[in-house]
Design a protein that fits this description.
Elements lengths: L18 E10 L2 E8 L11 E8 L2 E8 L12 E6 L6 H7 L5 E8 L11 E7 L4 H12 L6 E7 L8 H9 L5 E7 L13 E2 L2 H11 L7 E7 L1 H13 L7 E5 L13
Parallel strand pairs: 7-8, 7-11, 8-9, 9-10, 11-12
Antiparallel strand pairs: 1-2, 1-6, 2-5, 3-4, 3-6
The structure holds flavin-adenine dinucleotide (FAD).
């Protein structure tokens, strides 16, 4: 990926910092997991919520909302885990990519109503593309740790196999029957060289959702649907589900940017 020169000067000592970047794991050159930990006691949150996370540069606070991928119960020990895509324009993520582990950050929150319903015994269909899988990881990890797993189908769409974040963890949960989970990754560019050897499902998430419902016998009256990430995917998937008989109130949505805003080239 060709990145624009980001010459903003990051301020390491801004007094408003209240958290630290404690760990980072790169998945590809534009996808990474980050862990940010509060200096003091962590602020409680619920799975599905997001934290606004920021850095000071050129005398200004640059901040963006991020869904938390970790379970709320580990915020005090591991920090808040974020799953982020680098967007190749000079805004927040180019700053985040330059940030060394140990750097101070500003975190506020939580916010958001993209939450599990208490004691919901319906099957949970979690649909996402790219980094939109983050809140679902928190939901699965938390319900598992609490001993209240929910029957769940995770439909995750990406362009390339290497972009299937959390794949190993989800495959392990499914294989070991540690969680009542069906993991359904789908690759939208099957003919690309980077996907050579992929034998799983192909097609965009919104185009395979009908088949997934059919194959896994997901009945509209017994399924609750959560969709997160790219707004076009969300609206397309929702309309497929409506045609398939899902009532609107059985579908919850979290849009990562407003519909109509085209992602810059390379943002996936
Ligand atoms: C409630 C909420 C939760 C969010 N959670 C996450 C998260 O967990 N992980 C994450 O990576 N982003 C998440 N985002 C998006 C995030 O806040 C930033 O917009 C994004 O990281 C890009 O920041 P930026 O400043 O570099 O560019 P921005 O100016 O914020 O965005 C520029 C453009 O980049 C594109 N874009 C934004 N986010 C993404 C993305 N994730 N993948 C591909 N293209 C994108 C859109 O076209 C957007 O208009 C979330 C947004 C919201 C509203």
């Amino acid at each position: 990926m060709i990145l624009p020169d980001d010459e903003r000067v990051i301020d390491p000592a801004a007094p408003q910092y209240n958290a630290t970047l404690v760990r980072r794991v790169d998945i590809t050159d534009d996808l990474a997991y980050f862990w940010v930990k509060y200096d003091e006691e962590p602020v409680p949150f619920e799975s599905g919520q997001y934290m606004t996370t920021g850095v000071f540069a050129d005398g200004k606070l640059w901040q963006r909302p991020y869904s938390v991928a970790s379970a709320p119960r580990v915020a005090g020990t591991e920090g808040y885990e974020l799953y982020v895509r680098l967007v190749p324009i000079i805004r927040f993520t180019t700053l985040l990519w330059r940030l060394p582990v140990g750097h101070r950050m500003r975190m506020i929150g939580p916010k958001g109503k993209f939450l599990l319903e208490p004691n919901d015994r319906r099957t949970h269909l979690f649909i996402s593309t790219g980094t939109g899988i983050a809140p679902f990881m928190s939901m699965i990890r938390e319900t598992m740790a609490a001993g209240h797993p929910r029957k769940t189908v995770v439909l995750h769409g990406c362009s390339y196999v290497e972009e299937l974040g959390y794949r190993e963890e989800l495959e392990d949960l499914q294989r070991d029957r540690a969680y009542p989970l069906s993991y359904v990754p789908t690759i939208s560019r099957p003919n690309d060289q980077r996907n050579a050897g992929w034998t799983g499902r192909t097609g965009r998430a919104e185009n395979v959702v009908r088949d997934v419902c059919h194959d896994l016998h997901l009945r509209p009256d017994q399924t609750v649907v959560y969709i997160c990430g790219n707004p076009d995917m969300i609206l397309n998937a929702e309309s497929v589900l409506m045609e398939h008989g899902f009532p609107e109130f059985h579908v919850k949505k979290e849009l990562y940017w407003p519909k109509g805003k085209v992602a810059p080239v390379g943002a996936g």
